[in-house]
Specification:
By secondary structure, this protein is an alpha/beta fold. The chain has two domains: 178 residues, Rossmann fold; 175 residues, Glycogen Phosphorylase B (Rossmann fold, 3-Layer(aba) Sandwich), CATH 3.40.50.2000. The protein has 14 helices and 13 strands. Strand 8, helix 7 and strand 9 form a beta-alpha-beta unit. Helix 1 packs parallel to helix 2.
Amino acid sequence: MERKQKKIKILFTIPNFDTAGSGKALLNIAKGLDQKYFEPHIACLHDKGVGFKNIEKSGLPVHILQYIVPMAERIKGLIQCWKISRTLKEINPDLIHSFHYAPDYSEALAARMAGIPWVFTKKNMNWGGKSKNGWRLRSYLARHIIIQNTDMRMEFYPTSSNTTLIPRGVNLHEFSPKSSNNNSVEYLGIPRDSKVIMVIANLVPVKGIEYLIEAFDLMCEKKKSFYIVIIGDDNNNYAKNLKKIAEKKYNGHKILFTGKRQDIPDLLKLAYVFVLPTLNQYRREGSPVVLLEAMAAGIPVLASNVSGSRDILSNIPNQLFSPEDVSSLEDKLNWIINLDKENRDDLIKSQLEILNEKYAIEREIEQHELLYKNILQQ
C-alpha cells in the first residue's frame, strides 16, 4: 500500500485583518498553496476587521492568540516568549511565515524557543531610527527573509545570502480588463461624460496625495472634464487635512473622497488613469499591489519613482515621475491623458505583458512553495 505523504503545515501570522492589503496578500498565498502538499493555518491577535470575514469564508484553520509581546522589560518579555513557544508547539507547524509589518522580534524569539523555522516578509522600507535594532534582531533570528523589491536587498541586506526576492502578485482573472462592469462614472456621483483620475491608498502622509491634488488643480485649467477620485479610509487626520486642501482649490468640487471601499475591481474599471504619488521618504513602497491591480484592469498607470513602484515600472520608465514634484506629475498627467487610442492601447498592452511575465499571482504562490520546501530540506 502506498504511504500517504505528510503535508507541510505552514502557520501564517499577522496582527490583524484591518489593513486589507496585507491580509489579502496573506490569504492569496495561503489559499493558493497546493493542498496536496501544504496545510496552511493562520494566526492573528483578534477576529475584528472586515478582512477577517474573508478568512472565515476561506475555511482555513484560524488561531486567535497573542503571539507577540513587548520586549522593553527583557526578563518579562523572555518569559512571555517562552509561554508563546509552548502554544506554537501545540499548533506544531513545520514553518512559520510572519506578515507582521513592524520590527517586532518577540515572535521570532518564541519560534526559536519552539524549534520551529521562522521566516518573514519585509513589507516596507522602514529600517532606521528607533526601529533599527528591532529590524536587526528580527532579521538575525529569521531562518529566511522574503524581500519585495530590489532596493531592500541593496539598502538592508547587501551582503546577506539569506534573502529571496518575491514581489507581490495579482489575480489576473479578478482584475482582467475583459471582465464585465456595467457601471458608468455616474456610479461615483459625477457626470456621465467625465473622466476619472483615481488613487486607491491607505491614506497616510507617505502616499503624497497632496501633490496629486496640486497637479490636478493645475491640469484642470485645460482639462475640464476630469475628476479625481480618492479611495481609502478618510477618517484620519491626514485625510481630513487633504479635504481642507481640496476645499481651497478652484477645482475642489472635482475632488471626491469615497472613504474605504470593498468594490475595488469595479471601481478600477471606471478610471481613465491611475496614479500612485508616494513620497521618497518614510517607508515608501514594498511592492504596491494596487498598482498591479490597476494595470491588470487595463488602466494606464503613473507612479512616483520610489522603491517598489520603480521595480514594477522598470520596463516602462516613462510612466514614472519625480516624487514630491508637482510639475513632473502634471507633465506626466498631461502626456498620458493626451495619448491617442493607438498609443494608449499599446501602453496598456505593455503593462499586461509585464504582469503576465513577472507578477501573476500563480508565480508568487509557486515561488513561496519552492522556498518553503527548500528551507525545510535544509
